[in-house]
Fold these 4 entries.
Entry 1:
Amino acid sequence: QVQLVESGGGLVQAGGSLRLSCAASGSIFSINAMGWYRQAPGKQRELVAAITSGGSTNYADSVKGRFTISRDNAKNTVYLQMNSLKPEDTAVYYCNADVVHTTRIQYKYWGQGTQVTVSS
């Protein structure tokens, strides 16, 4: 079993910054892609940013230039640095990870979510 534990959410004023962290633990052989999604009230969950094990990144157009995803493979941790936050960034943010177990079988795991609220 694998657990993803997120931290770093909170309340911030527009224009401010937050840094989210997500640490994976458990029966892990390796981790391929890791990513952050968000879900605002009444909306579908959407991809915010993703990063491969090699460091290639992908961002939603709405966050390009403001958010930066990174990872520490030694710590099985992914980060999301969020700058110039806007009220429309308010959502519950979820991390996910494509974990390869020692059986060499890959599963996608999700964190429990962390609330980010940006006030105007």
Entry 2:
Amino acid sequence: QVQLVESGGGLVQPGGSLRLSCAASGSIFSIAAMGWYRQAPGKQRELVAAITSGGSTNYADSVKGRFTISRDKNTVYLQMNSLKPEDTAVYYCNAALFLWLGAPRGDYWGQGTQVTVSS
């Protein structure tokens, strides 16, 4: 069984910073990519940033230059700087991974962590 455990959310003032972490554990053969999504009230879940096993990164236009995604083995981080009120959302960790050699790729999600940007 695979678990993704997130941490690091909270309340921060506009212009502040937060660092989210997500650790994947369980019987994992390999991880193809990990990423962060967010969902604000009344809106669809959207990709924030993703990083592949090779280190390639992808960012939403709204966070480019402010957020940085990084990965260390089975843990992914999201460093969020210059936070804005519109960054307020529940942030979800995602991992695209293989449970064994030759297994189909599966998508796994964390439970979500609240990020609130407000003065």
Entry 3:
Amino acid sequence: QVQLVESGGGLVQTGGSLRLSCIGSGSSIFTTSAMGWYRQAPGKDRDMVARITTGGTTSYADSVKGRFTISRDNATGTVYLQMSSLKPEDTAVYYCKADKLRNGLPWVWWGRGTQVTVSS
């Protein structure tokens, strides 16, 4: 079964840290895909938090620059998100996403999400 499984979410106080993990299984395609983290708060759109290519190029939302770090293990198709100096506005469901072009067409796979709650 092809899937992305997130873990590491939870409840943390303002200023605290969490490390999210996302592992792809069921297909080697995750090892050759760009991977990223997105988040969705209640009543809001799902927005990109951070993204990393297979070559290690990273991009971040302005709101998390300097606080979050994305990394990946290409051998296992795992992507991590180290979150520090967390704020209540970081509270959301965090989703892992893998994407690439296959035969010129976009291929996208989403995980089911993990809840992150930051208390004030």
Entry 4:
Amino acid sequence: QVELVESGGGLVQAGGSLRLSCAASGIGYLINAMGWYRQAPGKQRELVATTTRTGSTNYADSVKGRFTISRDNAANTVYLHMNSLKPEDTAVYYCAAGRSYPSKAMNYWGKGTLVTVSS
């Protein structure tokens, strides 16, 4: 059974930093696409950042220059380093993962971790 477990969320002041982690288990292959999405209260879920095994990355315009996605391919683990956090970054952050190369679709989702940025 595939499971994605996020950690690292919490309360931080504006301008601060957090690092989110997500470990995938129950997967018997090396995942290609992994990423982070978020959903703020009253809004739709949106892409934050994604990455593939080959190292390509994609970021939402709103987080470019502030957030960095990285991963440990062998461990099927993905991280989101968040700097210069803003109150508008407050949301539940979800980890997502797909299947093996070359698929870029996200097939599995974590339960989410709450990030709250105070002004």
